[in-house]
Amino acid sequence: MSPTEVSKLPAWTLRSRLFSSDESQANSGFFRNLIVSYARSNAIETMKCIKKGTLVLEDSQGRQVFPAGTTSTDGAVVLKVVNDNLWLRILMSHDIGLAEAYMEGDFHVSSLKGLLNLWLDNREVMAGFKNIINSICAYYSAVAINTLGRQTLEMSLQNVQVAYDVSNDFYEIFLSKEMMYSCAIWGPEEDGPNGDLTVGPKEGDLEAAQHRKVHHILKLARVRPGDRLLEIGSGWGAVSIEAAKMGVTVHTVTLSSEQKAMTESRAAALGLSDLITVHLCDYRMLPAEFENTFHAFVSCEMVEAVGYKHWNEYFGVMDWALTKERGTAVITATAQPEFRWSEYQPDDFARHYHWPNTFLPSATSFPSELQRIMPGKFVFAGLEDHAVHYPRTLREWGRRLTKNFDKATKQRIQEKHPELRNEKRLQAFINKWHYMFTYAEVGYARAYTALNCWVFARPENVAEPCG
């Protein structure tokens, strides 16, 4: 297998081999046991410092409760170690190691959400899991992602192939009918962002919430019948189709052949092919005739993949494509709060296993950089945070994945990805997705991460006549 072929494999197929339990790579011997003992001791010392919440640890050496002296374990998170690779993974990769251990089934836990909340509640303590090995890896991953500027045209294509070209069949089993792979907006009709927990999920709730989000984005973009819309990041055509139904001509850009095929198929089925054109290319490779011809620019949860070093190119395309008089841009993205935001962002679970090399903006860094790079070209016209709506969206995706991953879906995915015919690998793949849904849910629910929506408009471009 060539280096290029290896680079295109999902990340879990590469890292998990370090801890393979196959007989051909037997995990035995004095040296390994010594390292496991050290790694476990280091982890136990860290867990002894837990101050908030209760953790019950069960492994081959017995049962321990943290904090020590806890009299009641009601509501405690119970973690049962199945394979001591858990300790090695945490030693080598810190929080990524914990995720890998979950994917590989190295431990069982009473509540994954509870465990991740416990981790966040005691984040200063959990820093004790860090060591010289994983700290060096984190530092150099940050340098590589941010300083070296990895988002070349080829790397961008490979990143999209890892993230989105699993198969349309797979995404169809957990996304809503219009295939919107971004945060919904929950209204009172669905009992709000917490309605699934207080009232219970109902059939069609996710579809209604996603429909509301799409039309909210189009309203912010100020599109009208006869307008031209440029969308960077097609998804599976949800925004394009709703815009076309309004009489808007849409040019949408994707690097995923799977997304292009489905968007074109759906547009044709609805009789909208004359209004929707899907371009399979990088956003930096658009036709020259696009210059200053679009009234609106929309990009939903795509800019994270651009990379800080390429914001100037992204903003440049936005300025180049929009008309000088009435151009409006709406951009949504997962964001970091200002107090944690940095130009140097190390590897983490989401970057490593779902969206390679992504870079998160903050609410203020993004518009500030736009004004620095494009002074006087745009007015910062609005900012929203939709993070409160994401946890329920993620919970619904997780429910649908569990409910709909049937034998037929399994066979279709295994036909496209023969490596998943190995049942252990397939289970690790499914565990990866469930971990991601819960990991992200906790982050948004705790305001550890935000979901910002920025609106930029040409100067003196009013949203609607008012005088």
From TrEMBL:
GO terms for biological process: lipid biosynthetic process; methylation. InterPro entries: CFA/CMAS, CMAS, SAM-dependent_MTases_sf. Belongs to the CFA/CMAS family. It comes from the Eukaryota. Keywords: Lipid metabolism, Methyltransferase, S-adenosyl-L-methionine, Transferase. It comes from Pterulicium gracile. This is Putative cyclopropane fatty acid synthase. One of its GO terms (molecular function) is methyltransferase activity.
